[in-house]
Design brief:
Keywords: DNA-binding, Phosphoprotein, Transcription, Transcription regulation, Two-component regulatory system. This is Response regulator transcription factor. Pfam families: Response_reg, Trans_reg_C. One of its GO terms (molecular function) is phosphorelay response regulator activity. About 3% of the residues have low confidence. By secondary structure, this protein is of the alpha/beta class. Helix 4 packs across helix 9. The radius of gyration is 18 Å and the shape is globular. The protein has 2 domains: 117 residues, Rossmann fold (3-Layer(aba) Sandwich); 105 residues, Orthogonal Bundle (Arc Repressor Mutant, subunit A), CATH 1.10.10. Bound molecules: calcium ion.
């Protein structure tokens, strides 16, 4: 299957190295050297976006925010802005992964491939299927369309990473899930002390809010990982909540 990466990067030497690296794995590249160029190339439906936050014509975070309003394409931030806070902001806004610059190109290739695997079967790619829904607390998740709805039935957007993690929790309620298991759910190699799982979990927690009894849906287990603490029911999509 043809896979296309959109490299948004204003340094031609860097975009060239990234494109050559991806080519070794058969991944084609489109290169955009500005935010304006990125918007033009988005019409070619890339499978993954590798985004430099420091572009001449846009603030990277603002650009990511706008991109997320229009697309659920996986985004890997590749940036010199590598402080922990920058990583957290990037993930909060909707990036799927974050690599500090300069990085090892093999690492960049591994992360890119993991995002491509994670995104396989996105509804925009398989058309979605009507199916059963998973209900928990005030929420309902339709795994086929990947739409999460609240008790008023209002849809909430989930990125590919948040969807993958929430699905892992809903598959195994009341079972402790280690960061290693959750990394696997993201089809990502486990890296000890990498906080990306924790950042994604806190993003999902904030999204879900409190359970009807006031407690959090996801509890932290000291040195073990996380546990989802609500019953999950499968039911027909057409039933009312
Ligand atoms: Ca730059």
């Amino acid at each position: 299957m043809r896979q296309i990466a959109l490299i948004v990067e204003d340094d031609p030497a860097t975009s060239h190295v990234i494109a050559s690296t991806l080519a070794t794995a058969g991944i084609e590249s489109l290169i955009a050297d500005s935010a304006a160029a990125m918007w033009r190339k988005m019409s070619e439906n890339p499978d993954v976006v590798i985004l430099d936050l420091g572009l001449p014509d846009a603030d990277g975070f603002e650009l990511l925010r706008r991109l997320r309003q229009q697309s659920d394409v996986p985004v890997l931030i590749h940036s010199t802005r590598s402080e922990e806070i920058e990583r957290i902001i990037g993930i909060e806004i909707g990036a799927d992964d974050f690599l500090p610059k300069p990085c090892n190109m093999r690492e960049l290739l591994a992360r890119t491939r993991s995002l491509l695997r994670r995104a396989k079967g996105r509804p925009s790619q398989n058309g979605g299927r009507p199916g059963c829904c998973l209900r928990f607390g005030d929420w309902m998740l339709d795994p086929a369309s990947r739409v999460l709805s609240d008790k008023q039935g209002l849809p909430v957007a989930l990125g590919v990473s948040a969807f993958a993690l929430l699905s892992a929790f809903l598959d195994s309620p009341f079972q402790p899930l280690s960061r290693e298991i959750l990394s696997r759910a993201l089809k990502r190699e486990y890296v000890p002390y990498d906080r990306i799982i924790d950042v994604h979990v806190s993003q999902i927690r904030r999204l879900l809010g409190a359970q009807p009894d006031g407690s959090s849906y996801i509890k932290t287990l000291r040195s073990q990982g996380y546990v989802f603490t609500s019953t999950v029911e499968r039911s027909d999509a057409t039933e009312s909540v």
